[in-house]
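Q: How would the structure tokens look for this protein?
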Amino acid sequence: MSVVFPSHEWLKELEEKLNSDQQYGKIASKWEGDLLFQIEPEGNLKEPIYYYIDLWHGKCRGTEMLSDPSEKKAAFVLKATYGNITRILLGNLDPMQAMMTRKLQVQGSMAYMLRNVPVVLRFVHCCQEITSEIK
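A: Here is the predicted structure in token form.
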């Protein structure tokens, strides 16, 4: 199923996709760290969006839309403009290149991210697979 980004439905679909994707489950079996995405307004997006994604040992233990980023303390905070996030989701911007050029800013252990590039790339692939349309 494909859904529109950004939306509550997109976030729930991502949770289901991560939990049903066998390749993600295998690659991420040692991953320990939740994510907080901060999507900064740009273009069609007028207000910031905060997505919390709880990832643990190849499973997504839950997702949540937050009204304020201080509601959750995550191991990783990923911050990008709406334009850069949508470019990643549409496959027009490589996620690792985005991190290295700070188009996707990472707070948390960059060394851990770099040791787990296959996990990061499969996570992004799952995001891309469920995204049919960008608002």
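The mean pLDDT is 93.

DSSP finds six helices and seven strands in the chain.

Upvote if useful.
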